[in-house]
Design goal:
This protein is mainly α. The chain has six helices and no strands. It starts with a helix and ends with a helix.
Amino acid sequence: MAKIVTILFCLFSLSATANELFSKADVAAGKALHDKNCISCHASSFGGDGSGIYTREYAKVKTSKGLVAQVRNCNTMIGLKWFEDEELNVAAYLNQAYYKFEK
């Protein structure tokens, strides 16, 4: 019984930590940054409006932390020079619009 309680506590702790990741993010600012800087690259790679990169069957991003890491990777690769809060804003927008890792 103690083992089950410990496991449940750990699961709830991880969930609470994950829910805090985007709690202070500005989703509207993230959408604006995304629309200005990301769509053209993603559309050229995946066609249409570029959203196929987020909804593809073999998605690379599996967690909210992975989403932040991927946004950071794109930021670095194309030299946007976004600050950490801007990366979080974009990740929060993508989470809300496509991934839905957190409620």
